[in-house]
Amino acid sequence: MRELSMMTEGLGLTRERLLEVDVHVRPGDALRALREEALAGLCTRPKELSPKWLYDERGSQLFDDITRLPEYYPTRREREILEAHAGEIARISGADTLIELGSGTSEKTRLLLNAFQAEGLRRFVPFDVSEAFLRDAAAKLACEYPGLQVHAVVGDFERHLGFLPRSGQRMVAFLGGTIGNFKPAQRAHFFREVADGLAIGECLLLGTDLIKCRQRLFAAYNDSAGVTAEFNRNVLRVLNRELGANFDVEAFEHLAPFDEANGWIEMQLISQREQVVRLAALGRSVNFARGEVLRTEVSCKFRPEQVEAELAEAGLHLSEWWTDAAGDFALSLSFKR
């Protein structure tokens, strides 16, 4: 569904801007997906949920709080790279259209937008699954950047990447280290989809968190203030609200260890006792043994050669690689060849 809206603002002169919104998520899609995934993930062993269910309104606010914690470095490190290299990224990309996947509030993207405008940016395409959130963010950006066409796309990474606008010379940005939430097979599929949607000479800007001291990794996901623990347990409140479940939220302990074999942080909720949870909307009950783990997220950490190899497998040639001063986080620019 496509919608066009005209907005005006008095700035001495009256400016008229075009804000375009494509909606590919139908009402009820999220709830249907949650039901299917909860049935598949909770009624088998090991138990697992997709990390996307962590991000209701409360979860999104908690994650924003996490990004400001002293232990959580990725957001600050990525911003450091963008502040230092956004102009260079804009020049090398040659793009007049910037697409951001999982744009959220597009806070960090403003650094890119400012740099790209100096290089002739014509259009910004924020892509996110939350329609209300995206509409609000897109409208604000259209007001902040009066000469810029804002074409928002409401969609899901897993189903709607093929609906991204195709005109212009495009750069796709996938920031925040979100790629780390994809397991290897999911990443390979995602990279292929992105590459298949790009024309020759178009590019992907990718944010990846790098392998580092295990103590620092552990601290980033097990903060002393307990904010990440509250964020993790919030998914149980989502299940209680949306599926009529009766999880005792406090009967689960948060732990996020580093899995050496897989190279990822694994967010876990550990049942502190034997319990039976009713999922009323599914007509099912779920048994938890004492000490049983419900995995809610993985966050993969990368080595440079691994990133380059995975991109190459999808047909993307890594051209540029930037890190923060401490070498904690990386942005890479890869072209479709």
Question: Can you tell me about this structure?
Answer:
The strands form three sheets. The chain has a nine-stranded mixed sheet with strand order 1-2-6-5-4-7-8-16-15, sandwiched between helices. Strand 1 and strand 2 form a beta hairpin. The chain has nine helices and 16 strands. It is α/β, with parallel strands linked by helices. It is globular. The protein is 34% helix and 30% strand. The model is unreliable at 5-16 (pLDDT under 50). It folds into two domains: 17-26 and 71-212 and 302-336, Rossmann fold (3-Layer(aba) Sandwich), CATH 3.40.50; 45-69 and 213-300, no CATH class.
Could you name the key traits of this structure?
single chain; 337 residues; alpha/beta; Rossmann fold; 9 helices; 30% strand
How much beta, percentage-wise? 25-35%
Stretches with pLDDT under 50, minimum 5 residues: 5-16
Approximate shape:
globular
Decide which structural class fits the backbone.
Answer: alpha/beta
Strand order of the largest sheet: 1-2-6-5-4-7-8-16-15
Instruction: Examine the coordinates and then state which fold CATH places here, giving the name of the CATH topology of the largest domain.
Output: Rossmann fold
